[in-house]
Specification:
95 residues; alpha+beta; Alpha-Beta Plaits; 4 strands; 35% helix; globular; Dimeric_a/b-barrel; Antibiotic biosynthesis monooxygenase; monooxygenase; AI-2_Isomerase_LsrG; oxidoreductase
Amino acid sequence: MTITKKVTFIAKKDGVKKMKELLTAMVKPSKAEDGCIFYDIFQCKDRPEKFFAVETWRDEAALDGHRNSEHYKVYKSSYEQYCEDKYSDELEVLG
């Protein structure tokens, strides 16, 4: 069963540029991971401090592999100083 998530990040006012760099750096290596079906980062045009990661993984094992990857560890150890708020939603694909 696939897992689809939307993770919302609200960057601190002085952290927008760095947050964008950290999140953008996640895209290419995440897409190359075994079990990644979809992975992209979005930034709101009218609220540049607001970012979304939308990701779909083949299964829980693939998502666990992502969470144990080197690029995820770099992001995880760095993002909090630039982020005001973060929350995620698990999504159900309809249709």
